[in-house]
What does this fold into?
Amino acid sequence: NVSFTVEKGEFVSIIGPSGSGKSTLLHILAGIDRPTSGKVYVDGEDIYAKSEKELAYYRRRKAGLIYQFYNLVPTLTVEENITLPCRLDKKKTDKETLDRMKERRSHLPSQLSGGQQQRCAIGRVLFTNPALMLADEPTGNLDSKSAAEVMELLGSANKQYGQTLIMITHNLELAKLADRMLIIKDGKLSEG
It folds into this structure.
């Protein structure tokens, strides 16, 4: 019985204790886990009315996932990780965006700090310009300086490009940075 609406361009944080359903909710919004009942609408479309192939396109093009553990391909360089969704779609990569990348673009993930790896993972999401960014504890493995840099990057994408951002976090201070905070507890969602 979870029901809520997020406006285009809004930044919403969802907090709650471990095991409350935060990540499951995010995975349902991302088209990864199927809900047992109900519907999920993104841009007016019921995403679960789509085929598995269409859901894969939805995840690659409309819903950018940012995980706590980065999920970078260890054998690909920073540039290759960031441009992977474009290559999967056989689209040209934006050379101007690539030219703005720092000197680390030829490094492998193992050669980066945790903050650099997370910025790479966020860059991969931003590179495709998704309508919906879904962040699951994006600062959970980072020190406070790196966490602040990651939050600045996410906030900038949200405000500057109007990308909708839904962030799961345990950190109340980070949750308060959002336009609106929701609390999930025992599978129930309420305004924070």
